[in-house]
Design a protein that fits this description.
Blueprint lengths: L14 H11 L3 E2 L11 H13 L11 H13 L7 H4 E5 H13 L5 E6 L3 H9 L3 E9 L4 E3 L1 H7 L4 E7 L11 H14 L2 E5 L26 E6 L1 H4 L6 E5 L2 H14 L5 H10 L3 H28 L2 E3 L6 E5 L1 H4 L7 H12 L1 E2 L16 E5 L4 H15 L21
Parallel strand pairs: 1-12, 3-4, 3-6, 6-7, 7-8
Antiparallel strand pairs: 2-9, 4-5, 8-9, 10-11, 11-13
């Protein structure tokens, strides 16, 4: 690592690559990295195939195809947000991860401070470092069977050097959905201290419970002109490998995002942009999304019940792909210390790969007793993972666990 720049040296290899490689080595079921093992709706895949044959395969415009930017703006306004100008306020990026990088690199000066909620998606901290800025952390903690943050702790984290607050709701890895009260506290502080809100909303369409509602912070009073909202097609339509993301922001903030974006990727795969524009308005694709949410909810509930029976203490997520579960009652008898050792043991011995969430924390104790399970898999895969965990832990599997049906790539029964 000595040849790696000092800005990147502390971060090593991303935990997702490490755990996926370990899963492959041991033929483990991969409940670590958050990618589905089914493809998106058939209509979307067909649209991509048509686009390869029927549309231009050369560079797209720097901000993205006009048709896709218009479709993103339309979906944005239908979600309760202000009308966005596709030409001056929407930028297509290489997934939400590049949108994060372009936003931070385009907006931050050396020495600026950015508040991150901990645990965090791991690229946040790296992108802050690449911008030569300084992260400050506010913890998201367990509160009963949910996760929340303390608005007073957030207020205390703001200093004269603070430039932005990076918000992730629905939240990865906890699955928490920030409610109206929490978002209003963030908005109030942004307005009071003249801060930019950077809102990562990639799981916006994967809220799984009727009593929860995704709210864009940009929709709150006073926030439209100071918010950069980031999202992507990959999580919504189970095409994470396409890397089609976007940033929506007022023109002055969009100028900063595009200033960095043009030198990071410049333009994104043209045929996939055509297909993405199709998906955002196609009735069949939007109906498929309802089916996806139903399947994710079933997977979540099945896995949470099984984990509790196995001795874990899972926290029911309200959105997204992931379950955070305390492993203390399982790891203690096996004399396994900490989440990293537990994740490695589960991958190599039980052959079920999970993520050690301390990789998303600067406080080593915040997530040390937990592991993260991805449930965005076929039901039969979840079922096999449960069976392997029962065998490893030595707890007999109840006969009354539901046996999920085989599911095709389009989430329809075989």
């Amino acid at each position: 690592m000595t040849s790696v720049t000092s800005r990147l040296r502390p971060f090593g290899t991303t935990v997702f690559a490490e755990m996926t490689a370990l899963a492959r080595e041991h033929d483990a079921i991969n409940l670590s990295q958050g990618f589905p093992d089914t493809d998106g709706p058939a209509a979307l895949l067909d649209a991509a195939a048509r686009a390869l044959r029927e549309h231009d395969n050369q560079y797209a415009p720097l901000p993205g195809l006009p048709a896709l930017r218009a479709a993103i703006a339309q979906r944005w306004s239908e979600g309760g947000n202000r009308a966005a100008d596709p030409d001056s306020e929407v930028t297509v990026t290489s997934g939400c991860t590049e949108a994060i990088a372009a936003t931070l690199l385009g907006l931050l000066e050396p020495g600026d401070e950015v508040i991150l909620f901990e645990p965090f998606y791991d690229s946040y901290r790296v992108c802050v470092a690449l911008a030569d800025a300084t992260p400050r952390f506010v913890q998201i903690r367990r509160a009963g069977n949910d996760h929340t943050f303390d608005p007073e702790e957030l207020a205390d984290a703001i200093t004269p050097k603070t430039r932005a607050i990076l918000i992730n709701t629905p939240h990865n890895p906890t699955g928490a959905v920030f409610g109206q009260t929490g978002l209003e506290s963030i908005a109030r502080l942004c307005i009071e201290h003249d801060l930019i809100a950077i809102a990562d909303e990639v799981y916006e369409h994967l809220v799984l419970d009727e009593d929860r509602q995704h709210i864009s912070v940009a929709s709150l009073p006073g926030m439209a002109d100071r918010t950069v909202t980031l999202s992507s097609l990959g999580k919504t339509f189970s095409v994470t490998g396409w890397k089609i993301g976007w940033a929506i922001a007022p023109p002055d903030l969009t100028t900063a995002v595009r200033a960095a974006h043009q030198f990071l990727t410049y333009a994104i795969a043209t045929p996939l942009q055509h297909a993405a524009a199709f998906a955002l308005s196609d009735p069949e694709c939007l109906a498929w999304l309802d089916t996806l949410r139903t399947q994710l909810r079933t997977n979540r509930d099945t896995l949470c019940v099984a984990l509790a029976d196995l001795g874990f203490d899972p926290i029911l997520p309200h959105a997204g792909y992931f379950i955070m579960a305390d492993h203390a009652r399982v790891s203690a008898p096996k004399k396994i210390d900490g989440d990293v050792a537990m994740a490695r043991a589960m991958t190599t011995e039980a052959r079920v790969a999970v993520i050690p969430p301390s990789a998303f924390c600067v406080d080593p104790g915040l997530c040390r007793s937990q592991v993260r399970f991805a449930f965005c898999k076929q039901p039969r895969v979840i079922d096999e993972a449960i069976t392997r965990l029962h065998e490893w832990i030595g707890v007999p599997r109840p006969e009354n666990y539901p046996q999920p049906p085989s599911v095709s790539r389009n989430l329809k029964p075989d």
